[in-house]
Specification:
single chain; mainly alpha; two-stranded antiparallel sheet; globular; RDD family protein; transmembrane helix; membrane
Length: 186
């Protein structure tokens, strides 16, 4: 995996490679789903009767739709960023994925991490998740061409911002003033 430095100073931190960042994001994403889907489903079970009433046939269809569509959508859109923020404000400011990838988040200005940077970084991911889920829904409802085009636009807007810059920052990192570095110098 490629490593680049922020400045030419020998004491400067080493930026995390794109591969290690993607690896950490995938680990955190799946952990969020494992936590989020049961949480959202539990909330659905608690509030089920006031929402849909007692019609058994409708109840079964709605429950199946909720399990396979709404629960993952809500989990991905809201619980993933919340999980990342809550996991990051702990003792070592790293999620499990970041610890496994040996990377960490820092504030670009002073090299430390502040909770407001972590919160802003997590909240800035919500529009990205909403756009991704909208594209997936469009793919299911309107067909592959429309959903595929929406997903392509999202990828161009967000992923290529990350892939196309020398500091390996995603749009959420640029706006939050954070950077991802290796935890240990190599």
């Amino acid at each position: 995996m490629e490593q680049t430095t922020i400045t030419s100073n020998n004491n400067s931190p080493i930026l995390a490679s794109k591969g290690s960042r993607i690896f950490a994001s995938l680990i955190d994403f799946f952990i969020s789903l494992l936590i989020g889907i049961p949480v959202v489903y539990f909330i659905f079970i608690i509030f089920k009767d006031p929402i849909i009433g007692g019609d058994v046939a409708y109840d079964d269809i709605y429950q199946i739709l909720f399990i396979f569509f709404f629960s993952p959508v809500i989990s991905i859109t809201f619980i993933c960023p919340i999980f990342e923020f809550l996991a990051s404000i702990g003792k070592n400011t790293n999620t499990l994925g970041k610890r496994l990838a040996n990377i960490k988040i820092i504030n670009k200005q002073d090299g430390r991490i502040k909770k407001r940077n972590l919160l802003m970084r997590s909240l800035l991911k919500i529009p990205y998740y909403i756009l991704c889920m909208t594209a997936i829904y469009a793919n299911i409802v309107m067909g592959f061409i429309v959903g595929g085009m929406m997903l392509l636009i999202i990828i161009l807007l967000f992923i290529f911002v990350f892939l196309g810059n020398s500091t390996n920052q995603g749009l959420h990192n640029k706006l939050a003033g954070t950077s991802i570095i290796c935890s240990q110098k190599k």
